[in-house]
Amino acid sequence: MPETEHVPRNALFGKYEIGRLLGCGAFAKVYHARDVRTGISVAVKVINKKRLTNPNLTTSVKREISIMSRLNHHFIVKLYEVLATKTKIYVVMEFVKGGELFAKVAKARFSEELSRKYFQQLITAVRYCHNHGIFHRDLKPENLLLDENGNLKVSDFGLSAVTDQIRADGMLHTLCGTPAYVAPEVLSKKGYDGAKVDVWSCGVILFVLHVGYLPFNDPNLMVMYKKIYKGEFRCPKWMSSDTKRFLSRLLDTNPETRITIDEILKDPWFREGYNEPTFQEEDGAQVKSLKLNAFDLISFSSGLDLSPLFDESHDYGERFVLRDAPEKLVERVKEVSKGERLRVKKGKEWGIELEGKDGNLGVAVEVYRLTEELVVVEARRKGSDAQWYKEFWNNKMRPALAKT
């Protein structure tokens, strides 16, 4: 972008003027920045691709970006934009001026009224996530920020899960989270309900905010886990009986009888001073009943294809959404291939690879189910001539697939 009097020479992509360092981790640094077009402050997370040596880290970053792209809520940190070069990924987010909630409570415990205020805002945000098929799984004061008005903002969705990660038994199975905030059923490794795990963590957070220390703590990790598993914690004598009752329902070791989000919203302790949010929640095209895979939906959208951010060689030929049955689409692919005398190799589920007899032509077609009615068709050329692929796809395969 040419330099102008309005754009500083060092502005990132001609858009953001990078300022002071806010924090850093193993593979990323976060900077304060200014949007040169609007003057608004933003936070830019700079991710070094070379340091994403572990595939799990790459997956975590992809998941966080895709999930945050889908969420738009007053009490959740907003993602504005994702930019990338060959070596770095730049995640541009809302700048939350007040810092971590943890820093505030570390100085002094909160009153019951203030603790309730933050808990109400937390539950409002968590409920929104759950309604969109997203479970945070690492809720703690360090991941809760405060804006300039003293309102809470949930951040760090790197360990979040989406509904498509639930196994056939209806449970999630990945062992994750911060030890002191993890629910007992996660430790049992028998599977857990993501929503109930988040409720437990919210209970631990409420205890920490109001009391000033952890309900379950011990220098020996295994001893602490035993306390969590048995639900061994004590409320201070000065705590009100209503707060003790409410905490006992949140920190119920039995997930089946633990209070749910809907029950929390009806509880007298929670409802005291509670005002239903009046801000508009914008969900875009996603609808809760569809139970879409947040990562795939964002990846499939034209606005944010995450694959090229991590793999410069990744080359998708075509990707589009159809309202049809995957089985029918696969049959149409076979029909076209037969007419072109291409060899058909079956891939996993609804995947097909097409090859010319001499092996010089190659096309891979994958069909993914998004909902009961919608599917995504993805095609890419594999070693074949670009001009042949373009003519084959545009003139033969795509028209055949698009037939209703």
Automatic annotation (TrEMBL):
Stretches of the chain forming a coiled coil according to its record: none
Binding positions (ATP): 45
Domain named Protein kinase: residues: 16-270
EC number: 2.7.11.1
Catalytic activity: L-seryl-[protein] + ATP = O-phospho-L-seryl-[protein] + ADP + H(+); L-threonyl-[protein] + ATP = O-phospho-L-threonyl-[protein] + ADP + H(+)
UniProt-listed InterPro entries: Kinase-like_dom_sf, NAF/FISL_domain, NAF_dom, Prot_kinase_dom, Protein_kinase_ATP_BS, Ser/Thr_kinase_AS
Keyword Transferase recorded: yes
Swiss-Prot/TrEMBL keywords: ATP-binding, Kinase, Nucleotide-binding, Serine/threonine-protein kinase, Transferase
Keyword Transferase found: yes
Positions of transmembrane segments: none
Ranges for domain NAF: 287-311
Listed cofactors: Mn(2+)
Family in the record: Belongs to the protein kinase superfamily. CAMK Ser/Thr protein kinase family. SNF1 subfamily.
Protein name from the UniProt record: non-specific serine/threonine protein kinase
Species: Hibiscus sabdariffa
